[in-house]
Specification:
Length: 226
């Protein structure tokens, strides 16, 4: 391959509903809060109230709202429940995630992008023990500010973006059109019922289907004149 140049491959993963079952995380949080007498209805009502411009402000904020409804509980009790569920994060990682990341990390550059409240996302990522697989981790509370991801989506590498949210895929693809987008559409997730859009290059049901798509794309760039 004298006249060909190797192109490094970079894989950029989303976190929630791609690598980590946020549904299971929330279900466990709701169950543990119910042991303190907090109903699912109270959880979801205060959860919605804890959002500003559709962005979750974090459990500490939500805990203060729950305490207004249930003043007999202390903030310490509520945050203790939350920390306990956070510590269970490895059990909320999708079954194939560790196997796939372990294999891919020996071949490719892995990066992680997560949208959400910074402190919460950092804690979930760290507690899930997935942070060691990634060379770079970026957390953003603003889906629209995709230009800030310029470093992670650099053109010098063949980059694949794996994400469950078709709206996030649209924003990334519009800003970085050379990125190959792969939507993971799991059975349970916030965006499961949203259809693919024109910015989705491939769609998969789980991470086990990922590598066959990567292998469809050449990793050598020819220098031969045509």
């Amino acid at each position: 391959m004298k006249n060909e140049k190797f192109i490094p491959i970079k894989l950029v993963f989303d976190f929630d509903y791609t690598l980590f079952s946020t549904n299971l995380f929330k279900d466990n949080l709701i169950y543990n809060l119910s042991q303190l007498g907090i109903s699912p209805d109270i959880f979801w009502t205060t959860y919605r109230q804890s959002k500003k411009n559709s962005k979750y402000l974090g459990f500490n904020y939500q805990a203060k709202l729950i305490k207004k409804v249930a003043p007999q509980l202390s903030l310490k009790d509520l945050t203790s429940i939350f920390k306990g569920v956070l510590n269970q994060s490895p059990s909320f990682v999708y079954p194939e995630t560790l196997k796939v990341l372990s294999r891919l990390s020996t071949k490719y550059h892995l990066n992680l992008i997560s949208f959400g409240e910074t402190k919460l996302q950092k804690e979930k990522i760290k507690k899930s023990k997935l942070d060691t697989f990634f060379q770079e981790i970026i957390i953003s509370s603003h889906l629209e500010k995709t230009k800030s991801f310029k470093k992670i989506f650099e053109v010098k590498k063949k980059t694949f973006y794996i994400e469950d949210n078709p709206l996030a895929i649209r924003e990334i693809k519009k800003t970085f059109p050379s990125v190959i987008t792969i939507r993971i559409k799991r059975q349970h997730g916030t965006y499961t019922h949203k259809n693919n859009n024109q910015f989705v290059d491939y769609s998969i049901n789980n991470l086990l289907e990922l590598e066959s798509i990567i292998q469809k794309h050449p990793i050598y760039l020819s220098h031969k004149k045509i």
